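Notes from the 1:1 (GR / supervisor)

We went over the backlog. Supervisor wanted to see one worked example end to end before approving the batch request, so GR pasted a single chain during the call. The sequence is below; no edits were made to it. Supervisor asked that the structure be written out right there so they could see what the output format looks like.
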Amino acid sequence: MTNQPHSPTPAPDLFTWEFATNPYPAYAWLREHAPVHRTRLPSGVEAWLVTRYTDAKQALADGRLSKNPAHHDEPAHAKGKTGIPGERKAELMTHLLNIDPPDHTRLRRLVSKAFTPRRVAEFAPRVQELTDHLIDQFADTGEADLIHDFAFPLPIYAICDLLGVPREDQDDFRDWAGMMIRHGGGPRGGVARSVKKMRGYLAELIHRKREALPDAPTPGEDLISGLIRASDHGEHLTENEAAAMCFVLLFAGFETTVNLIGNGMYALLGNPEQRALIQNSIEREQLGLIELGIEELLRFDGPVEMATWRFATESLEIGGQRITAGDPVLVVLAAANRDSARFPEPNTLDVARRDNQHLGYGHGIHYCLGAPLARLEARVAFMTLLRRLPDMQLASASTELRWRGGLIMRGLRELPVEFTVQRKQFR
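Structure output shown during the call:
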């Protein structure tokens, strides 16, 4: 274990339940005393944590830090404990979170067609329809768990629509995704089983769509059909690559949005003056502030705590610390986004913050591909919730809220709220 710089105060405990509830004091200590810190993760893997903004931004764009787990010389006790649980056995490794150029460039180009500004804008009415439908289910009760009743199902159904999963199968995806979230910080068996079921379904769906796909191109076709068509027209996309691509879009796309909506609403409920600013701007149809506000929520308590795994392909230096070839590196986005050297008053929520180049969705060639869709879902979700349930508050009977103690993602397990009963909006 590499020695850390001497500090007059003891290093904080990491990865405890107390840490999951509020990791920011620990990250502040690391930024000051051990900004590039080697630690043993709960899985037993030893990795470097990068916590300062400048170092984090450099690391995210450093080509010497590979996404390919093959560059990690895994000790026996850490075998298979990096990446998404179950993805190896399910043959889902060849996706954007695990590969480097040129394969990364080729696959990203194919799937990026689903996330152009035009395609995302065309999807907005469906997101609004889903949002209103979900709120209709609890608007006349005066209470809800915003995670279970709203933030969780919204991105699941949206991404299923984007991929082309038939409506009659989407509840299965909701069940599998739910198991992945519930067991994100605990036993890996439940996650692996969900991944296996999802892999089997995707293989069967890809086969069905290939059989049914007409020769003529279809404008606005679903993503799975688009990937199949690209493969059939010489883009060299294997079935494993297509299945892995769909899997990672679902895996990475739904939980980030769940946490963005959940963490964001929790932050607004705890900062009523900032919430009032956004509500006033919505009433006046001045939507610039909601855009700034979403970026601030991504910075202040974003959905992704750490960027996904990177592995040093050669010996290199980050923040004055020597990293050995093969070492895992985790860039702590949550720590970098609270760095006072980059953000004035970083622990203050300021929905009007303008110079806000946060790292909430990464940086460089691995910048989150689905960020435009996540931002659309968040914008529609926040605007509709604050417009339709304007007096929403944390439920008075709720005890201390619980956080999911994962490694990459960070979000609430539940968010119980109360509000004045609203009549359903029939459309």
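Supervisor's comment: The domain at 17-418 is CATH 1.10.630.10 (Cytochrome p450).
Batch request approved.
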